[in-house]
Design brief:
Length: 452
Amino acid sequence: MTAAHPVTVHSARIVVPMTAPPIADGAVAVQDGRILHVGDRSWVVDQLAGSGTSFTERRWRGALLPGLVNAHSHLQYTGMASVGQRQYDGFEDWALAFNEDYAEPHDWQAEAAAGAAASILAGVTSIADIVTDIEASNALETYGLGGIAYWEVMDWENDAWQAHGRDQVLAELERIPTTPGAGLSPHAPYSLDVAPLLELPDIVRQRGLRLHLHLGEAAFEGERIALGPVPGLEGVDGVGHGSDWHLANVPSFRAMRALGFGASATVFVDRLGVLGPDCHIAHGVYMTAADRALLRARGTAVALCPRSNAVIGLDPPPVADYLREGSPIAIGTDSLASSPSLDLMADVTALHRIARAQGYGHRDLHERLLAAATLGGAHAMGLAVGPDRIGHLAVGARADLAVFDVDARTVPDAMAELVEDGSGRAVVTVIRGVVRAADGALVPHPTPQEEP
């Protein structure tokens, strides 16, 4: 008779399941990398005792949450931290600095690995990782992280795409590891012509994969309203509201703008069929209420990256509007090329500050931002449901946990402390039931061949 696999009970003063009310003096029982029980510590212990199940308890100080989900990052740019430590005067200014550093020699595999390690130390257990160079594509798999590696596609014009671009991307996609998950990232509407933007979603959907793109990050992606007649386009006065730009057979977003049409980048990619429930976007800064409504209509979540926006010199994201309107939001750090750290809780704190400054006064802000950093990221990548679901503490879900050092004794005070000053507080990270980081140090991770 085979012995039952061991059970570990992770208990803490406060447990926040995300899909159930927070629990004072709670516990999570874990077996075979999955959650067996969640609830009051006394109830969990009684359940195990009643079934004759032996267990080992690990009592953690602070608040126990689902592992954080970083919904937008580029791990391979971890070695470009010198770029992210500066301040810029806008997207073009930042892009010059980025391109200069990117052209220098880099060990993308090693830098992506360093980013994965830093993420685990910060309580992150799953990542939407945008991969530009194939050497960096296996960071999630190597470190046992969850999430999706999105192969980035950019700088394709229509003729080149039709001649050989599609075949090249298909070949590159075959090289992206499918563990933990693979997808495609059409970079942005201004870096790809119409032909690739039309075909890339089809390529992804035919394979049951996911899409992720930058959208509404740069100010020039926002809607433009003409103040008078557009030279050379008689009868197009008032572009930006109902103009039939798509009937002009424009070859690209930039060409559309050059012709005087003012439709936003969000409207542009939606007309091409990019948005949908299998797609999430990053940034979403320069969007009107109509753009945000379009995202909701398509079931497309947005990953907000406030610290990255601040470094680049962009406006803050309209987080208060997203919250009031009920838009699905997630949170991302972006990369060290545009952010001070890979600590997702620092972005949670930044969003709290921005939301209050924008007039969001509801008492649910702490809860909603913590949900965005966990369940919201899982939802954005289609990983909140199914057999390998993440982002919440529930029976059968993957046992990805994070413990944060908070002093508060009550649930509301602990959540406020964590949201308003959560940076640097991660003390334990558990991935698939295995402690991977504790007290600021990584715990050695067995290779796939060594795992039981």
